[in-house]
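Q: Can someone sanity-check these two? First one:
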Amino acid sequence: MALMQHQSFAPLVKKVSPAVVNISVTQSGASDTTAQEPEQGSPDFPNSPFDEFLRRFFDQQNPNGQRHLFPQMPGGQAHRIALGSGFIIDPSGYVVTNSHVVGDASKVEVTLQDDSKYPAKIIGRDPKTDIALLRIKADKPLPYVTFGDSSTPQVGDWVMAVGNPFGLGGTVTTGIISARGRDIHSGPFDDFLQIDAPINRGNSGGPTFNLDGQVIGINTAIYSPNGGSVGIGFAVPSNLAKTVVAQLEEHGKVSRGWLGVQIQEVTPAIASSLGLQGEHGALVAVVSPDSPGAKAGLKQGDVILTFNGSEVSRLRDLPRLVAETAPDTGAKMKVWRNGQTVELHATLGELPNNEQVASTTNGREQDESARADALGMHLAPLNSQLRRELHTGKEVQGVVITQVDPGSAAAEVGLSEGDVVVAIDQQPV
């Protein structure tokens, strides 16, 4: 504390702030009072993969209580608003921001610190990680910043955020890394840095710097019960961003590896039943037919312990490790099976991009429901309606838990409503 008490951030601000930009967008006019959004999602934040958990930086409240990402002018004219932030990563004009900031806007404009404005082209977007890459063209080399190694900062390290909150460009705030590896249940690749540097609406897409002036995170979301900063912000770590940006620059899209398995957490009860020391790894619940996992020899009930030499300490480690591996490349896995470790080799496929899911319904057929009295849970056949509700493919076979009695044996081992029982003692149901 004594070391930092009298240290000024001014030299760091002077060094990096010229590369931080403001971003505004224009969407084509619509006759409806609510702008049409390109991606399906919440009516509050339709471009955001985090809309069910967080209030976005730049939502706007109208008198009727409706939020619009693109407020409409009379007569359906397009309206330009300061939406977010970004940063230049190359003197030739590549700009990184959030995917939800630009959406599928018809026009994007980037404003530099000296108030010069440039039209921007969207090179590519990756909604799964909420990262977008833009390109602006200037007649001179542009100021830029570089990515650092997001694996090295520790909880408690100082960070600095620069952005465009509430349209106030060039705003600088400081704080510390509050936590690492945050999973806010927005998707399979969650691995956020949590920071307490005050960030607000309009900071989306802006950089979080370490004290060396390197970008270690992209400010993406906040948790806020009142719409303002409460010191809980989330940034996409730079190591993830670097791989995404590189693919967007080269291909305009992101290709991810695909193993073709569905996994679940290894609970203490599951670990004990399998003779596994500790609750680590990812339990294979379903192996899709003809998938890379099936061809590699993965079986239901296997526990994947490592993937390409990296430990699978937590359930969510595996999807991220697989996704970071290029399609059509080989991968080694250490798997726990029948009380011993075996090694398997897979050639990954490409993750399908059709993430659109069926809408849910409220009714559930209970006529065929059977009560498992000994365990304190209710079961039902996995029919087509339940498959839609649970987003479960046809390759999954089993029964659905429709209710778990409080205090029952089923509740104590962690079973819950919506779980699909596919095997008992490694025997298919």
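And here is the second, same format, sequence then tokens:
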Amino acid sequence: MAALTEPSRVGSKSNRAERKKLVSSIKQKAKDVLGSKENSNNIVEILEYLQHDEKDIVNAAIQSTSRIFCHLLAEDEMIPAPGVSGSKEKYRLWLQARYNDAIRCLCNVVGTFVTVPVLQLALRTLMKFVAEESKHPFKKEGSSSNYFFPIHIIALLVPQLLSKTVVFSELIGRCKEYMEYDDVRYHVLQHVQHRISKQAKEKLNPMEMTTLCNNTVNLLHTVTMPTDEESINNFLGMIPDPDEGGKIMNLKEHRRVFTNAWLAFLRFPLPNSVYKQILINIHENVMPHMTTPLHLTDFLTASYDIGGAISLLALNGLFILINQYNLEYPDFFTKLYAMFEPSLFHVKYKARFFHLADMFLSSTHLPSYVVAAFAKRLSRLSLTAPPHALMMLIPFVCNLLMRHPNCKVLVHRPHGPRELSDDPYKMDEPNPAKCNALESSLWEIQTLKSHYDPGVSRSAANIEKPFPKVEWDLDLDLTIPQMVAKETKKKMKTMPLEFEPAKGLLGGGGQDMFDARFWVV
């Protein structure tokens, strides 16, 4: 995957004075073009400098191009005038052709240059063209409506942003300010879908696929979606008439292009890093804005079946589909049960997983045997869990018992089996309904009362005490260094060992142990 680095320049032999002189020459050519039509051929020379290797020269060429064509657009120089023909019409068409050349050259700069400030300047210039051309259109593109948006600029820009060779993290991050415009976002999402669909037909090597996926997910994450039609009022270009705006004013259309872009992207063979990036935010940034969130069912169930961290991150989105959109997924709790393994206490997303698991198991409508299975499995895992994990695990089990009083038989079972081999619980049984957890007891928590860590032993003792009215807090982010720091900061009380202070080491009378009379050689 290529990163943005400063390349060796072809013009590196030129000294600074020559470059400065050339930059001044480019700016002067732009002034001459604006001063007289006779100097219009300077436009061709300026556009050629957009293909230069020196960033100062390209920077000057971009600024000059912006100045020239923003002026021509604002003055309607490229709009057909009624009754005008001959040389004036040829000149107008020639300006249009050079304007299109400028757009292609600027998009080429975005796709090939590597200096971030130059890339951002090229992007800003293209978006200036979008704003000016939409307000001063010289081509209606076959539309009978008065509303116009220069789609051709977006169509050339999006493929450059979705590069398969260079990761444009900073440049795409700059796109966020433009994606807040309703018209820009709508047309960008349309062309993201087109670009992804086209790339899906090509054979990309793993590095190209990773680069493309990173650029795509970064661009999609810059999107800020409207929540109602009244909020569709922010436009970079022409403000559409409410009666003639058509699709651009329709919230359903915005959600449709958003949904299509995401679904096209999620069909890609995503690398793990992108998978995780999507799953972390999918329930907040994607699902609420889709036409039908159930379209994500295949993606989320496939993610849930992958295993490891990806399965953990897919939990929340899948549970929302089950809980809020009536998705039928009978194996959800069976697969959740299977995720509770000893390695779980050492993964990166441990805190997130236990937070979600606590939320999933909070329903009082769950069968007692399901809750008992989770409580027993966690108790068994506690035998090998590190101390900081136990400070979260024990309150987790206690909260399960508090929500489901029927499961308290796991604590108060005086006539249960005396030997470990007689425990009816089947740790290797994948189905929580068949593991016989409700017939067992939480003897594992009882053993933790003798744990070497005083915090763990105190926490384990709570399971035999009357439960409070509110649930215990879960120390999801507690670490061993935090536990050590907490213990070292405690103020220890000095305990008296003798009521009367000793007057000497070997008895009363103040006898000195170093007195020679007590030593025999």
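A (reply): Looked at the second one. The radius of gyration is 35 Å. The mean pLDDT is 85.
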